[in-house]
């Protein structure tokens, strides 16, 4: 039997046994190129830091389904167009996460901060700080796409 067409399932734990938390992240981009950052609310790890909206996948949930749910819960918008973009892993002191970044270029509804968080439309270089460490690679990917275009 050939294994060429089989999809490799990513590990669920780190080599030292810690659980990997799967996270769907939406990089909402307007037609003018501005992108949305949200500030983590009080009571969460890294409160006050800026990040792209999203959240943990629930059992059996796809990245797109999780992102659709999270954007509705956090910002009261309904996802229309979502394209998988990059996946990275990051080791935070409180959790080891696998972040599935998706570009979101179309949604329905008007953004509302349902969790009391601030949000801001940004361009590079960003004007809000501090930013979550795992968010930083996204800005580099954006720069690379801009220089290629």
Automatic annotation (TrEMBL):
A GO MF term: 8-oxo-7,8-dihydrodeoxyguanosine triphosphate pyrophosphatase activity
InterPro entries: MutT-like, Nudix_hydrolase, NUDIX_hydrolase-like_dom_sf, NUDIX_hydrolase_CS, NUDIX_hydrolase_dom
Assigned EC number: 3.6.1.55
Record-linked CDD domains: NUDIX_MutT_NudA_like (cd03425)
Coiled-coil regions listed in the entry: none
TM stretches of this protein: none
Gene3D superfamilies (UniProt xref): Nucleoside Triphosphate Pyrophosphohydrolase
Domain of life: Bacteria
Record-annotated Nudix hydrolase domain positions: 18-144
SUPFAM superfamilies referenced in this protein's UniProt entry, alphabetically: Nudix (SSF55811)
Catalytic activity reported: 8-oxo-GTP + H2O = 8-oxo-GMP + diphosphate + H(+); 8-oxo-dGTP + H2O = 8-oxo-dGMP + diphosphate + H(+)
GO biological process: DNA repair; DNA replication
Cofactor names: Mg(2+)
Alphabetically ordered keywords of this record: DNA damage, DNA repair, DNA replication, Hydrolase, Magnesium, Metal-binding, Mutator protein
Similarity field: Belongs to the Nudix hydrolase family.
Protein's recorded name: 8-oxo-dGTP diphosphatase
Taxonomic lineage: Bacteria, Pseudomonadati, Pseudomonadota, Betaproteobacteria, Burkholderiales
């Amino acid at each position: 039997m050939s294994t060429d067409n089989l999809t490799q399932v990513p590990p669920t734990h780190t080599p030292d046994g810690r659980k990997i938390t799967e996270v769907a992240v939406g990089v909402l981009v307007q037609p003018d190129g501005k992108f949305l950052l949200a500030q983590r609310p009080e009571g969460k790890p890294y409160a006050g830091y800026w990040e792209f909206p999203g959240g943990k996948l629930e059992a059996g949930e796809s990245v797109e389904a999780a992102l659709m749910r999270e954007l509705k819960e956090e910002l009261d918008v309904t996802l229309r167009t979502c394209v998988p973009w990059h996946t990275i892993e990051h080791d935070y002191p409180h959790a080891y996460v696998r972040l599935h970044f998706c570009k979101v270029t179309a949604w329905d509804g008007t953004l509302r901060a349902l969790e009391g968080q601030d949000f801001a439309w940004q361009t590079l270089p960003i004007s809000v700080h501090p930013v979550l460490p795992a968010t930083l690679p996204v800005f580099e990917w954006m720069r690379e796409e801009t220089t290629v275009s």
